[in-house]
Model the fold of this input.
Amino acid sequence: MMDTDMPPSQDKSPELWNPRAAIGWSLLLSPAFGAYLHAANWQALNEPQRASENKSWFWVSIVFTILALLTEFLPNPRILDALFRLVGLCLFIAWYRSQARHQVTHFRDVLENCYTKKRWGRALLAGFTPFLVGVVVIMIFAVLEMGKIDPKMVVETLRPELQKQWPEHKSVTIGEISLIPTKENSNKFTGTVEATLDGETSLFPLEINVGKDSELSWIIGEPDDAESG
Done:
């Protein structure tokens, strides 16, 4: 039956997404999800300006989501993740206040919530697929990173051991330790250690191997250069 409140040019109620549900799912997925569906609704209601505005929010949200995923590959991802979560919430609120609530009001006051509701199967599949792909990529990256050895951790473990390396000297001070993973084996490092022995500073070549259970073995060569302390 045709809704008497619909424009005369329409012979049946439009087939639309529930705007409230779209907003709710956007909290879990991204404002991009809701903005896309709201844009489709406005397009079906012959409101191209409103549709265009929501499409802009869709692309802004897509770019933001990509940047948020990239933070997982940067140093200190937890800090950046917390920051992006806050910005993401602000983005959602901004989209809701500037766009989404107007569609909810339009559906209530103009359409009187009389419309044919579209099914959510395909929409949710499209919304969750990028989300799941992102999670899988992050998990793969995390697994690969677990296999890598952090040179900073090696330095922290090695420093107190090197302090005992020269027992024949009364005074031993370990300075800067520089390590570079070898191309052939990520468990091996080459570099240098700056050591001050009885007031005389020298730069020693260093080779380190990280074995099972993170056990370290190392070889210290003859000093390359020396500086009077």
